[in-house]
Specification:
It is a single chain. By secondary structure, the chain is mainly beta. The protein folds into two domains: 84 residues, Immunoglobulin-like (Sandwich); 104 residues, Immunoglobulin-like (Sandwich). The protein is built from one helix and 19 strands. An eight-stranded antiparallel sheet has the order 16-15-18-19-12-13-14-17, with no helix packed on it. Strand 7 and strand 8 form a beta hairpin. The longest helix has 17 residues. It is elongated, with a radius of gyration of 21 Å.
Length: 221
Amino acid sequence: MKQIHILIFILVIFQGCIGTDVVEDFVQARVSVENPIQSLKIGDTYQFSAMYINNVGESASADFNWMSSNEEVLTIENDGFATAIKKGSATITVSANGLSDEMILTIADTTILNLNSRTAELKTVSSYPLSGTATLKKESGTTILELDASFNTTSALPGLYVYLSNNTNSISNALEVGMVTSFSGAQSYKITEDISLSAYSHVLFYCKPFLVPVGNGELKP
């Protein structure tokens, strides 16, 4: 009888996770500039790089083509090596496999690197509450994921983990950040892998024992 009670208790706890439908593992493939900057000093050079994310959210190899909209201001070789010629602005475009991404670069008196953080407004995608803001940032060469003081979910969730991913439908190609240590309030997670801030597009929360999505947020910019 005691074993039956334990089994019922476990089923009650896990019911929400088991009852959530898992959607198809598919996303729109994309190309993006991996290391954008805000401005480049006249006479300086910069090596741009790009990434191709396939339709299951996995980084894959691709042949990239680079282009500058104004070669009098900025030239860029087909490997992404750019040279600032004179003051002005130019649109840099990178393309591969029929997809493209672009950014506007200003040529000025100083080189300004891109912002060192990205944020995501979290939302639930399940019957469980999940809200707050996540910030992915670099501090002294270390990548950190922070959840702010407004973060809130429920302790009824079994095995809640947080991930970085390019596919909100799956964690098969995601980076596991760790098990959620607190169900509310500010907290931070150190990421041991050396990744760029643009390597992943979303923060995901999953019920790991059943591979069921709980919530997510898109990292911006």
